[in-house]
Structures are given as structure tokens and as C-alpha cells.
Design brief:
Elements lengths: L8 H5 L27 H14 L5 H12 L10 H5 L4 H15 L4 H5 L1 E4 L2 E4 L11 H14 L11 E5 L5 H9 L4 E6 L2 H13 L6 E5 L17 E6 L14 H6 L13 H13 E10 L4 H11 L5 E8 L5 E8 L22
The chain binds S-adenosylmethionine.
Length: 358
């Protein structure tokens, strides 16, 4: 399925990843025999589609089209000028297609093979094992944008909302919010060093560094919220947290199991481990009537609703649930219903922490 030019949705829609294994050692990869004769882009796509189909590689045609287009300097095969589709590739280009196709035969996700992917109109650098942004997450971003447009925080004291993203990965959510909300500022946190570095690099590439603070932080560590106090109370918290039920991890597609960081996916027994930590820290960080937007599993609206009822001390209400483009309940809007928690003396903000170096 292709939506908006660049998407390999079925490839990514499976749940998945196997703990501890990394599929990017190619020791077992046997290079295919070089193709005889000079082939055109169209012929190469047909050739590699057939090879991928035979080897059971998902999204065979889309994969070969993206690889050939990439080698020819285009984002999609459809956007290639007709002449480039029919003229022969150079020996170097043929070799490069062959090398990248070899990675695909090893089930490497196309996004990692290409080294970049689009999200909300932004081209982001992708690198294993940092989580590849999924198309449904665009629905979360769009919901936040709608709410900001309707709410008073769009015209706050400093001109726009202050947003905390928990688990920024490649920076997809934070950077697309920043690019579409020119007055906004974002605090992006992640426990993964590779994710922190990639968000930093993507922010730099997109010239959005001046409105983002990128902070290495594990939200499960006690008192972690205290590190965020210096930036002031937030208008919004947004997160696409790890939410896969632990028992589902083994069923994830090989592309996910072998290449993406399990820490980005595994949400524990009921997928709630990180979700509950985010909710528990929210009252310390959110402004009165501030909002939390979460992407979750379809089983979570009910689980999160019950959990919030059992934690009335947090003064958080599940106010709306939204479906993804497959009609599954996947996004939650949770709002503060009480005043902000008092700040314990030992947690009072100190001097403004330094920005993470670029
Ligand atoms: C599903 S990925 C989402 C990445 C990105 N926001 C996106 O939508 O493409 C979840 C992210 O949460 C991060 N994460 C997992 N556990 C965390 C924790 N305890 N504290 C902070 N970040 C965490 C992972 O490293 C990963 O980058």
C-alpha cells in the first residue's frame, strides 16, 4: 500500500522484534551473481521483485522500486523521469542496487537501507536500531495539531505551546510539531543514546535546533521528572511509548525483531510499563488543564481508563479516544483535572541545564 508517496505500511504493521538479536551482521549473506548485461531501472525492478517474491520478502515490488529509485537519486520509482526508467544503469549503479537488495534479502527494513524516510513531509535520517516512525503516528501528530489550533495554549505567553515528548526516537513527532507550530518549543527525551543522537542530527538537518531541548532521560527512574522542571510547566505531553505486550514480542516481523531496538517496543506484561510512568510524572510537569496525547495498543483505552480510575490522586481524566486509519482505537487524549502537584523542596528547579551538545 502506498499513501502520500512513501510508505511501506504492511511491512511495518506486524508487531515485532526478538530481544537481543541484531540482524545487521551480514556474515551469512551470499552475494547474488552479478546480473549479465546492462539493465534498465524497469528491468531491475522486475528482476528484484521476482527474487524477493521467491525468497518470501514482504512488499517485494515496493522494496525493489524504492531501492532502484534511491540508487538513481529519486525518492520513489514513480517520480523517476521516464528516460531514467528505460536507460541502462552504469555498472556502479547495478552493483549498488545489488548490494542494497542483498540487505533486503536479509530482511533489513527499507527505511534503514535507504537511510532516510519521510514523516509529515519531513525527510528524517534513519539508522538502526532507532525506531522507524510508523505512518499511523501521523494521526497522533495531526490530533495534537488540531487541539493546539483550538486551545488557548496556541497563543500562550511565549506565543506557542511548550511540549514534552517522551521517547523521541528519530525525532519524528517532536520535529514535525516544531515545523508546523512555529511558535512552539519542545523538550524531547529518550533513554536511548542512539535515539538522542539521531533526534539531534535530524533537528540540525531541519534547522529546528533552536526550539528543541534534547535530553537523555529514563522516565522509569525515580524522580526523573525533576530533571525536566527547569523548563517550566508543559502545555502538552505527547508520546508514542513502547506499548507492545511482552507476550506479543515474539510475533513481530523479522524486520522489526532483527533490526529495531526492543526497548522501543516492549511495554511489559500488558504494554503499560512506560505508559503508567508517563502518567505518573504528568501531574508534576503539566500546566493546569494541560493534556497528554498517547499512541497505544487497541487494548489500552480500556486498560488506561481503569488504571486512571484507580489513581485518582493523579487528577487525570481520559477525555477522548481516536481511531487510526484502520479504524482501531489507538490514540488517547488525557487531561489534567486538578491543580499542578506541589514541587518537593529537593526537586525545586536549579539553574537551567545545558543543551545537549551537537
Ligand atoms: C515506539 S518508539 C517511538 C519513537 C518516536 N517517538 C516515533 O514515534 O517514531 C519509543 C521510544 O521510547 C524510548 N523509550 C523506551 N523506554 C524509555 C524510557 N524508560 N524513558 C525514555 N524513553 C524511553 C525508546 O528508546 C524509543 O525511542
Amino acid at each position: 500500500m502506498e499513501i502520500g508517496g512513501r510508505m511501506l505500511w504492511p511491512l511495518l504493521s506486524g508487531l515485532g522484534r526478538r530481544k537481543g538479536t541484531r540482524g545487521w551482521a551480514f556474515s551469512s549473506w551470499q552475494p547474488c551473481r552479478p546480473l549479465a548485461g546492462l539493465l534498465s531501472a524497469t528491468e531491475l525492478v522486475s528482476h528484484w521483485t521476482a527474487v524477493f517474491e521467491k525468497r518470501g520478502i514482504p512488499e517485494a515490488q515496493a522494496s525493489s522500486e524504492y531501492i532502484v529509485a534511491h540508487v538513481l537519486g529519486a525518492k520513489t520509482f514513480q517520480s523517476l523521469r521516464p528516460v531514467l526508467r528505460t536507460q541502462s544503469l552504469t555498472p556502479w549503479q547495478l552493483q549498488y542496487v545489488q548490494k542494497l537488495s542483498g540487505y533486503r534479502l536479509q530482511r533489513m527494513p527499507v527505511q534503514y537501507i535507504l537511510g532516510e524516510w519521510d514523516f509529515q513531509g519531513l525527510t528524517l535520517k534513519m539508522a538502526p536500531p532507532v525506531f522507524i516512525p510508523r505512518p499511523e503516528t501521523e494521526g497522533l501528530v495531526e490530533w495534537v495539531l488540531e487541539e493546539v489550533a483550538q486551545s488557548s495554549c496556541a497563543a500562550g505567553a511565549q506565543g506557542g505551546p511548550l511540549i514534552l515528548e517522551v521517547g523521541c526516537g528519530s525525532g519524528a513527532i517532536s520535529l514535525s510539531l516544531l515545523s508546523q507550530l512555529p511558535q512552539s518549543r519542545v523538550i524531547a527525551v529518550d533513554k536511548g543514546e542512539a535515539a538522542i543522537c539521531l533526534t539531534q542530527e535530524n533537528a540540525q538537518r531541519l534547522r529546528l535546533l533552536d526550539r528543541i531541548q534534547i535530553i537523555p532521560l529514563d522516565v522509569t527512574l525515580e524522580g526523573s521528572w525533576a530533571h525536566l522542571l527547569p523548563w517550566g510547566p508543559m502545555d502538552l505531553i505527547v508520546s508514542n511509548p513502547p506499548y507492545v505486550f511482552h507476550q506479543d514480542m515474539e510475533q513481530l516481523a523479522p524486520e522489526i525483531r532483527s533490526y529495531e531496538d526492543p526497548v522501543a517496543l516492549d511495554g511489559g506484561k500488558e504494554g503499560m510499563d512506560i505508559i503508567t510512568h508517563i502518567l505518573a510524572l504528568a501531574p508534576w510537569l503539566l500546566k493546569d488543564s494541560g493534556s497528554i496525547f498517547l499512541e497505544v495498543d487497541p487494548r489500552h483505552p480500556e486498560l488506561v481508563g481503569s488504571w486512571l480510575q484507580s489513581r485518582s490522586d493523579l487528577s487525570l481524566d481520559l477525555v477522548a479516544v481516536r481511531q487510526d486509519f484502520c479504524g482501531r482505537p489507538r490514540f488517547l487524549h488525557i487531561q489534567r483535572s486538578g491543580p499542578q502537584h506541589g514541587c518537593p523542596v529537593e526537586a525545586r528547579p536549579g539553574p537551567q541545564p545545558a543543551r545537549v551538545p551537537g
